[in-house]
Amino acid sequence: xxxxxxxxxxxxxxxxxxxxxxxxxxxxxxxxxxxxxxxxxxxxxxxxxxxxxxxxxxxxxxxxxxxxxxxxxxxxxxxxxxxxxxxxxxxxxxxxxxxxxxxxxxxxxxxxxxxxxxxxxxxxxxxxxxxxxxxxxxxxxxxxxxxxxxxxxxxxxxxxxxxxxxxxxxxxxxxxxxxxxxxxxxxxxx
Length: 190
Fold this sequence. Notes:
The protein is α+β, with helices and mostly antiparallel strands. It contains seven helices and six strands, in the order αβββααααββααβ.
């Protein structure tokens, strides 16, 4: 029999988030939140993701954050980092208590318990691809009207023109639908 999700939300008192000086301080905050939530047997890791902010690997009992994302947001938006940590904690708690993956009712319940009741399924943010990865890129996804680059590729993406003409950037559909193109980035030698 499946457990019922409680109707009443009892908030958890988490450690106070402050302006972090470095990655070690962010990691210490994440570990202390994990401990308060009863996840002392889980691990925290840094990863090198550039297309997502955080990750909860339920079966491995690991919460991870993108090193690039945290470095990009450390000084200008500490609350976005805090919300990402709590978002991933909600996934872990939903898994432990209700065996539920994804952004279902249990996840929403634990978001409320952790103090982020209005949390969205996924947070989109600006590109935080590190400079050293951009330098290796040979192709880019560009808005033909504005010239804005949304994503970099080291190899030519396998996407045909018909599919690209129907593609858009989430959250920017009206300004990108039918306006995306793949462009070659010229090297200094080219």
